[in-house]
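subagent[fold] <- orchestrator: predict structure for attached chain, return tokens only, no commentary.
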Amino acid sequence: MPRRIENTHRNIFVGSFESRDWRLLSDRLRAAGYDITQATTIESFVGEAATSEADLIIVDRSTAAVAEAHLEERLDQNPVTKKLPILVLSATGEWPTTTVDSPFGLVDYLPRPFSASEFVSRVKAVLRVNYCENGGSPKQTRDPVTKLYNRLYFDEALETELDRARRYGRELSVALMDVDSLEEINTQFDHRTGDAVLRSLADILLSGTRLSDVMARFGGDEFALILPETTSTGAGILVERLRSTFADRTLARSGGDVRATVTCGIASYPDHAGDAETLLRMADSALCRGRKEGRNRSVIAFSDTCEAAWGGLNAGPTILLVEGNDYSRSVASVVLRANGYEVIEASDAASALSLAKASHPDLVLMDVYLNGLDGLEVTRRLVSMTETHDIPILALTSSDIPSELEKLVAAGCRGYITKPIDTNSLAAQIEPFLA
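subagent[fold] -> orchestrator:
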């Protein structure tokens, strides 16, 4: 089953008057595929919202007039709009005085300042939570801070999905995520900022996964995902994308910018375990390995048979992966590790040369376009050095024009892999060069 993210709703009604940043925000929503209708005046806002057939109402409190109009309360008094989710964009420095469990139905808050990407993620997250609740998922199954499912719901859902996977012979993956250094963030800023970090990650999980996927707050700074009909490699690619997106997210706060990372562990049925308890234990073991390796990474569990065959984590062939794009490098690394290879990563020419001489890998995957010294020059130098001349080098290139491929051969590459990399065939493409 392809991993496809569904748009559950598209119509958004907005009350934003004289807001300086609304043009940018509305453009980002339209680019994400949403239809935007804006209220004419503050006085007509509630009536127009009731007839707009909206899936979400956004109230922008960045101006005093909107803040004084108490639009959330008035929306709650209307029989049509009281059933709709409301996202309140606060003024800078303003924090909500009510919660989602307030009298005003499903009300969510996004305090300024926030980035456009953070805003779009929150919109998608609010719509998804509301869609699931309308489908019969009660509010008491959700964590009050992140709006993800709680541990009890997760445990029940995992048993249900495992039964379904066994019955129909399907695969299923589980991922555990641990926010790195959350205690330090709480100490440096405050717990409200720590909650904002957790909520930001939750928004990314809700907006970047399928409706069939289950996201839960496992407890404290831990999150858990159930990914039906997803192999360990597919789960690794998805989780790595979510991890990378979160690592790139900056939360602007009065005490300074806040950034955080997550470490992730992945395990799959039936490859790693046949029951829920063992599956979670294998994912947790992979998570612990990710912490030991330096955090801010995704690690796929090894099965007992694989560990016995390899005789340890470093027994498989070693690949030096030289790739300038962080996301592409991370995804390729996850796929290679899942296929039993030890991976050493480099993002620039200097690191590539140094690591090749120090580790003498069994294979080098070389990005042709590196900052500074390009990949072909690095290849020429590796081929010319006594200690590395026998290492096979495959070029990673987006061009398969014959004249360009001739340059690869002339530089010393023994083959090439086209970009974007086909993760399904990556292991098969490199196998002949490791014989």
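orchestrator: received. Logging for downstream: The chain is about 40% helix and 20% strand. Confidence is low (pLDDT under 50) at residues 98-104, 304-314.
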